[in-house]
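Continuing from the previous page...

OK, I double-checked the sequence for Phage holin family protein against my notes and this is the correct one:
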Amino acid sequence: MAERDANQQVPEGPDDDTERAQTPHLDESVRRIGAAGRATLDSALDTGRALRRLVANDLALARSAMGRALAWVAVAIVFGASAWLLVMGMATAFLHSLGLSWLAGFAICAALNLAVTALAAWRVSVFFDYAGMHATRRQFSRLGVGDESAKPDEGTDPPSCPTPPMPASTAGTGTP
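Thanks. Re-ran it with the corrected sequence; updated structure tokens here:
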């Protein structure tokens, strides 16, 4: 049985002619790669166009929603202000029923309104200060971009940024 296995030839693979027929020439391979590259580029461009349409439509929706939201905010402000006026009128009448004069009732309600107005004005100024992007301005001024104190024709160099301190474990090695 061992003799039969040794004499029997096992096919090692496809013929060289069949293999060459299946493998395209170099110019055909280059054409296929070019076609695949064009297909990939077309797909990327189509994806970019779809993303641009999505962003444009999303911005249009946001713009429309913002307008409608502002309209409803105006309605809420009008009705909230009229309700507040009615509450202050009732508070003034209640204070008068307690024995205070009309002038004293109006003065107490006015003082309450002025205190709330001052609190709101203070909070608005704080939030507008937050909106000033001070940290971003500091970083830009460190880089010399948008420095409002120096004029561009004065020829001043941007301020040098200090080197950050090295951690104690790597201070002498020269590696960060």
